[in-house]
Amino acid sequence: METAGSVVGTRSTRTPTPARRPERSRAPNLVRCRAGAVAMQSQPPPPSSVRTVAIPFADLKERGKDLSGRIEEGLGPNGLGIISISDVPGFPALRRTLLRLAPRVASLPEDVKEQLEDPDSRYNFGWSHGKEKLESGKLDTFKGSYYANPILDVPTTDDALLSRYPSYCRPNIWPADHLPELEIAFKALGKLMLEVGLMLASHCDLYVMQHGVGTFDGESLEQTISRSRCHKGRLLYYFPRQFSTQKEEGGSVSSWCGWHTDHGSLTGLTCGLFMRNSEEIPCPDSAAGLYIRTRDNRVVKVTFGEDELAYQIGETTEILSRGRLCATPHCVQAPSGENASNVERSTFAMFMQPDWNETLKFPSEIPYHQEVEFVAEDEIVEIVPNIRMEALNMICGDFGPFFPQIASKVPLWLAVALKRRGKCTVRAPEWMTVDRLTQVLDAERESPREFQPLPFHYIEVSKLLFDHARDDISDAYLVRSLIEDIRDVRFHKVESGLETLSGRTHAVKLKNLSAMEVNIVRPFMVRTLQAFYKHDSPQMIQQADNTGSRSTPVTDRGPRRDLRRR
Fold it and tell me: Domains of the chain, with CATH numbers?
């Protein structure tokens, strides 16, 4: 949970993965953090904290025990997306042993730590320090991380896989000559967290099945996790800081770990261990800790016992469970005040995620428009910054540097994030003008069987710009009205065209459709043509002949699909 790396899926330095979510009671909520440099706006911390829903280990290990009520309370649509397991045998000792090794790893000689780095995996194996960025855009030197797969030292020897998935497939790196006990402690705690996570996953499967949708279309969460070869553990160490450094951070609620939503299946985490001068101490600031953004957009502090194992739902599980299990955005606030000076903190997270070649079945009832909108956010737009900022180096490309009043091209998601923080204005695309849209609308009406060329994501791009940069669009009201009219005309063409399909149709060619229109048509078109092929197959005809000459009247074999706007 406390990472901006591949194990949580951001755009800045790690492997990106899909994720999304608007507020909805029984449907998937698809929220994601796009980059460590630009994140969700913070809110002041609430005066009180919320305790996680806790399940005793004795109950968890009974596979037949009904824990659906607790699962729904903690991980369901109205929960916090986190649950804790108490009284796990051996956990307190394993936690303490590993977390006390974190400062020793950070204290290794610099030349040794350099040997423990793995740039080829984007620093997703071995030691990593100062490679990620804070929300301010500065390199994060406050904490160091040690990444490893606690289950498999060598997930694969396939060179093609090592090249394609270096963040998951590369071998572990251990300081065998300088700190050999790290490997033992790391693997012991990681394996225990996986075992308990599998128990929790089996109860999550039962909870999902009770809602009458099956278990992830036949692929259970427990099965997905158990056969994966790319689980990742992360040992984190937060260096001691001075009071002056804390004041520079401004007391942000996300001062230690920026807002993000885990992208994997399930994340296990321990309570942090605080030390000063090598002595364990309680957390010096009651406001510090894990914060979660709730369904009603409140930010609450969440607590669980130091001897409890906590688990958070990732976006992959949320999507596959059709929103019955929900992931939530979260961050970590650092302690502040004079009492927090020279305090160091250690913690451990275990990221359980699908195998790199796992085929995930996307639930058919999840609204397509949410997925299409996510893809559309990668469209390039032009912004005019009002700040000076260094270049952002991301997997999808390098953007910037940025200078005041000098236009720059960036992905739409980055433009929206900067706009929300008041750091830029957004220039509407050339096609989003009254004159251009009027021409398109007239041409659409005059050509009942043709679609005019428009950007593939014109619906999603315009929606995002109207939602977040309306004041930057000239004649915004008229532009919005024209786009809605164009969309209505085109949707009507799609509906009318589908009504002309017949049993002799073997292929359909539709030019200049947008992403939203394609995703509305595609599933219905495929099912319709499959039905025609099945009806006209020789085997089906032979079966009909064998039943005699009696014919069955068919009044209407045309498709019945209401393609009204959603």
Answer: 44-352 (2.60.120.330)
